Amino acid sequence: MTAASLVGRLVDAFKAEGRIVIVGASLAGLRAAEALREKGFRGPLTIIGDEPHEPYDRPPLSKQVLKGWVPADHTKLPRLRPVDADWRLGVAAVGLDRSNRQVLLANGEKVDYDRLLIATGTRARPWFNAHEAALQGLFTVRTCDDAARLAAALRERPRRVLIVGSGFVGSEIASVCRDLDLAVTVAERGKAPLTGALGGVIGDIAARMQLDAGVDLRTGVAVEALDGDADDHVRRARLSDGTVLDVDVVVACLGSIRNVEWLDGAQLASGFWGVACDAGCRAFDINGVVTDNIFVAGDVARAPHVLYEYEFMSQEHWDNAVFGAEVAANNMISLEMGRRPHLPLPSFWSGQFGVNIKSVGVCSFGDEIVFTQGSPAQRRFAAAYGYRGRIVGAVTFNHGKWLPYYASLIERSAPFPPPPPGYDRPVIFEPMPARFVPRPPRTDRHSRRGADRT
């Protein structure tokens, strides 16, 4: 027997043996299961999800579903191939026993595994006051059930909708409300919408978009309390500037919380920032030692990125979930030489107020911005972000066809400002401060990065 044939038999045996459990039945979990079968895994496969629904698509929830174009229960993700899995839906994982290699479920069951994929994602941050959180008419938007309830409330034509927070989800919902000709107020603690992800320069443009669309945008204020009527339905909101608003619907867009509580006591490197893993999606334990049989993918994963000073980052984006799941699946069933890294260039998109916003790279890593193409006044432009003389991110408004060009510049750490294009040059081609909130200490940067992104 040749060495090559021996290795081939070892690989085949490795793929065929053992039990794989995936905790998280959403985009990353489904795509990982499909990739496992595609790559030849023939062993038992279990998928655990706390929601009763089969995996569904989340981006349409704050757009098409709220507009009434698509019912919330019609957003199921397409199956790319049969996965032949034991689906455990509607039951949450509540613990991980690494010594016995078991996932503990809320119904008391224990699910054995040989290799485990953590893909538990995030949930919406709830309203800060538990009593007020129980008021009817207060919503978050994360699940398809959330979107269905809010869509029903919007169909009732509320007198005024209050959106708390103006990140991408909040801004998209505000856009939907105006499309439905509903009065909407947006309350934002910061100076402008989208500043966490894109900085103050772009935030000013986003603010003007909202105001021109008829949004009652209020920046630099917080919602301090909500008041209900005798039927416990929200009717008023009290703001930090003393204003009292009459509202019928409140949508809390306060960011996300990573679903890691079930890992308490498992001695993995997990916390409010997610689960730390290496570029091959292998989880670290609390001592920084990489595990051999536990992998992480999707929104809950936090991994170092070579283009951003090896900083550990959580990326709440579609592409990260899909490609991370595929890499994790490959590495779960591959011997050392067959493993590969997950080094994605982050990208996301958002549609709001008639503008298609697309971004690539990590714009918030930069401290400067320059408009490279188009016209900011017309909301049709491209802009690049720089850090220490190199391009680290780019954003386009109704100019997305140029995004691959900027992605190629970022991937090779091209100089900033980038060379001006041969045509469609802006009137002003001068770098300026991007006006992000000052960076916290390095160990806490993750609390700003990746929050509230579509």
TrEMBL record:
GO cellular component: cytoplasm
Pfam families: Pyr_redox_2 (PF07992), Reductase_C (PF14759)
GO molecular function, one term: oxidoreductase activity, acting on NAD(P)H
Cell inner membrane among keywords: no
Biased composition (Basic and acidic residues): 441-454
Protein name: NADPH-dependent 2,4-dienoyl-CoA reductase, sulfur reductase, or a related oxidoreductase
Region of interest (Disordered), residue spans: 434-454
Cofactor needs: FAD
InterPro entries recorded: FAD-oxidoreductase/Apoptosis, FAD/NAD-bd_sf, FAD/NAD-binding_dom, FAD/NAD-linked_Rdtase_dimer_sf, Reductase_C
Highest taxon listed in the record's lineage: Bacteria
PANTHER family, A to Z: APOPTOSIS-INDUCING FACTOR 1, RIESKE DOMAIN-CONTAINING PROTEIN-RELATED
Domain Reductase C-terminal: 348-417
Keywords in alphabetical order: FAD, Flavoprotein, Oxidoreductase
Organism: Mycobacterium terramassiliense
Domain FAD/NAD(P)-binding, first and last residues per copy: 19-321
